[in-house]
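Run log // design_07
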């Protein structure tokens, strides 16, 4: 996909983002919850646009020297084209510039596509939160504790090269 632009998510984006949440998640976040998130100082949300349309987004939270990926999605029609990879690359770059050393997230145990994506970023499963999701599904907790290391920077350069 050509000319995908990453931008800060704003209030004006929230209707569309909430609609994409509905498409992508069994427990979608509401527009209101997203608006609350945008107001929090330790959060950061980006949208990916193609021809002005939002095709994906990512949100993360800073806690001490860790970054926690809160959400990431791309619209079904645009999957497999590197949008989530670009969003994560940008998110990690911002986080490392801000002093983050580690990165973590939860992912549904059955979500193999997302787990493969995260593994490419050096995230490894370290534990399970039983019944974490409202439907009762377990979450895998994944970590990469050295996102600022030379090895991880090289890994991300390789991923970025694969996109271009
Ligand atoms: C998980 C999710 C965010 C991935 O988004 P995406 O934009 O499709 O991700 P990417 O394109 O960067 O990578 C996904 C796949 O596309 C492939 N890909 C990446 N760039 C590509 C390119 N230029 N050409 C072809 N394929 C490519 C990747 O190899 C990967 O393939 P895989 O199935 O072998 O792992 C998306 O499937 C989604 O929104 N799912 C629903 C919500 C969700 O589960 N979010 C995660 C919650 S924890």
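design_07 sequence
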């Amino acid at each position: 996909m050509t000319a995908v632009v990453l931008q800060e998510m704003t209030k004006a984006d929230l209707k569309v983002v909430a609609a994409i949440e509905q498409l992508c998640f069994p427990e979608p976040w509401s527009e209101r919850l997203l608006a609350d998130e945008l107001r929090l100082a330790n959060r950061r949300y980006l949208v990916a646009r193609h021809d002005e349309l939002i095709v994906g987004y990512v949100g993360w939270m800073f806690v001490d020297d860790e970054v926690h990926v809160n959400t990431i999605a791309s619209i079904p029609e645009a999957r497999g084209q590197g949008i989530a990879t670009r969003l994560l690359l940008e998110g990690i770059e911002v986080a490392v510039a801000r002093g983050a050393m580690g990165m973590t997230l939860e992912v549904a145990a059955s979500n193999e596509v997302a787990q493969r994506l995260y593994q490419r970023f050096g995230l490894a499963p370290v534990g399970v939160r039983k019944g974490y999701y409202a439907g009762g599904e377990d979450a895998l907790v994944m970590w990469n504790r050295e996102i600022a290391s030379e090895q991880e920077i090289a890994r991300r350069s390789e991923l970025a090269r694969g996109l271009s």
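The chain has a mean pLDDT of 96.
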